[in-house]
Write a structure and sequence with these properties.
Number of helices: 6
Distance between the termini: 138 Å
Strand content: 15-25%
Helix content: 10-25%
Largest sheet: 17 strands, parallel
Radius of gyration: 36 Å
């Protein structure tokens, strides 16, 4: 008697055909990852009444979900994802499949409201409806599924507020609902979700303030970007010691970056760009030894760049034992790696915002502090972060020289120092950066020759260097052409060579030579022309006599 039929990842094609009364005892059917097309048979429920697990995902099935699936009273897992199914979820399914624990309908063309009020899926644990066209609000009937641990409603057209009853679902570990039209504040009841591991509400219309009590101890990933959140960052997530990803970018958050951020010892991805944050970059960031990506761009941060920042790759930070190349099954420290989820992290590389997720994310590292009000010199210690791929310090008020230690950034692909007040020469050692594909030092006060046009530097055009009138060499003007230095505003005055616009040693030497030449010229003229010589002596004697009588007339009487 056939109980299990597994035909995964074959080349089966055509419509699904069921033989009457031949599969009545079948409990597990998996025909995923094939080329099956046409409709799911309408009588599938009557033909397979004993099924517990049904997986027809990753095919090319069309049409609606058959109502007869509701006749599968023993069904525990249903996966119809990655097809071209349309229509609504049958009410008979939500009423009849009372044993259903896993419902996966992702990436189809389903629409309408998620569930009706008639609902009997009380044992549901995992619900994945992402990548469809569901609309309206999250149904209240879902609150009856008290054992839910994972909800994925991402990439739909849902609207309305996030219901507060979701905070009462004590088993919830994953709330994934980005790219919808959800609005209103984050319910304060979410503070009760102590087992929450993933919270993704990005790209919605969420507004209001972050609840100060929102700090689940087991949470790994927080994605709240591209909303309308406002207010101060205070103690939110400070007790979330397992937090790996914190993305609050593209909101209206204000105030300082909280000092308690040093309590997030597992933090790898800190994305706070495009807010209204101000104050200094907290020195507490230096205590985070597992940071891979830090993006604080487009804020109002001021002060100096901490010299103690430590940036590595997630892969390096969590690796214990042999390298990945040597051990594909190498073990990693807790918490779980981001490759266990499909939640992307957006980071700007080479002037383009890319989405990094899965294995690729574990190899990515970088720093973006652009578009702030940072001052002071660039710490030379940054040059020892040899694992970073991106460094963007543009559009600030940084001064001093480009550190020669930057030649140690052997993995760097994008280096942007433009729109600052940097001075001095561009370190010629930078030509050793073999992976560099984007290089910008435009609009500074740099001088001297541009780096040799070898290897990667042979690909950079004038836009990489423009706005530095004292720079010369290809692809700028030739260094052999003398031109008066234009007036340049900004930039510090330094006491070392190459730190300012004038070589001070040459300046003093030219001053002494000019003074000597003037004396020699006067002496030569007086020697050649007797008339001018007599006039000079007469004028000198007249000045002497006048000065003498002026002093005598104005001395106090006791000195006479």
């Amino acid at each position: 008697m056939l109980n299990t039929l597994l035909l995964v990842n074959n080349s089966l094609s055509g419509p699904i055909k069921l033989l009457a009364h031949s599969c009545m005892s079948l409990e597990d059917l998996d025909i995923s990852e094939n080329f099956l097309d046409d409709h799911i048979p309408m009588e599938i429920g009557a033909s397979l009444p004993s099924l517990r697990d049904l997986n027809i995902s990753r095919n090319s099935l069309i049409g609606s979900i058959p109502c007869s699936i509701g006749d599968m009273k023993l069904l525990e897992s249903l996966d119809l994802s990655h097809n071209n199914l349309s229509g609504e979820i049958p009410e008979k399914l939500t009423m009849g499949c009372s044993s259903l624990r896993f419902l996966i309908l992702s990436n189809n063309n389903l629409q309408g409201q998620i569930f009706s009020e008639k609902f009997s899926l009380f044992h549901l644990e995992e619900l994945q409806l992402d990548g469809n066209h569901f609309s309206r609000s999250i149904p209240k009937s879902l609150s009856n599924s008290l054992y839910l641990s994972s909800i994925d409603f991402s990439n739909n057209n849902l609207s309305g507020r996030i219901p507060s009853w979701m905070g009462n679902m004590s088993y919830l570990q994953e709330i994934i609902m980005p790219n919808n039209g959800l609005e209103g504040p984050i319910p304060i009841s979410f503070c009760q979700l102590q087992h929450l591991e993933i919270l993704d509400l990005s790209n919605n219309n969420i507004s209001g303030r972050l609840p100060t009590c929102l700090s689940p101890r087991e949470i790994n990933h927080v994605h709240l970007s591209k909303n309308w959140l406002e207010g101060l960052l205070t103690t939110q997530f400070c007790n979330s010691s397992s937090l790996v990803t914190l993305d609050l970018s593209d909101n209206q958050l204000s105030g300082n970056i909280p000092d308690c951020i040093n309590m997030l010892g597992e933090l790898s991805y800190l994305i706070l760009k495009s807010n209204n944050l101000e104050g200094d970059i907290p020195i507490q960031l230096c205590k985070l030894q597992k940071l891979s990506l830090i993006d604080l761009s487009q804020n109002h941060l001021s002060g100096h760049i901490p010299s103690c920042l430590n940036i590595t790759t997630f892969d390096e930070a969590y690796k214990v034992g042999p390298s990945i190349a040597q051990a594909p099954q190498a073990s990693y420290a807790q918490p779980p790696q981001p490759i266990s989820t499909d939640e992307p992290v957006y980071f700007t590389t080479k002037n383009v915002s890319y989405s990094y997720k899965g294995r690729l994310l574990t190899y990515m590292s970088g720093i973006d502090l652009s578009c702030n009000k940072l001052t002071g010199e660039i710490p030379y210690e940054i040059g020892y972060l040899n694992k970073i791929h991106v460094l963007n310090l543009s559009h600030n008020f940084l001064v001093g020289q480009i550190p020669s230690t930057f030649s140690n950034l052997e993995q760097i692909e994008s280096l942007d120092l433009s729109y600052n007040n940097l001075s001095g020469k561009i370190p010629p050692q930078l030509v050793q950066l073999h992976y560099l594909s984007t290089f910008r030092v435009a609009y500074n006060n740099l001088s001297g020759k541009t780096p040799k046009r070898v290897e990667q530097f042979g690909t950079f055009d004038e836009s990489s260097y423009e706005g530095n009138p004292l720079l010369c060499g290809e692809p700028m003007k030739s260094c052999s052409i003398a031109s008066p230095p234009p007036l340049i505003q900004g930039g510090p005055t330094q006491g070392r060579e190459d730190d300012g616009f004038i070589d001070m040693g040459v300046f003093y030497m030219s001053l002494v030579v000019s003074y000597i030449m003037m004396l020699i010229t006067i002496a030569a003229v007086l020697y050649i022309n007797p008339y001018w010589r007599r006039a000079w002596f007469y004028y000198t004697e007249l000045c002497y006599i006048s000065s003498y009588y002026f002093i005598v007339d104005h001395l106090p009487k006791q000195f006479h």
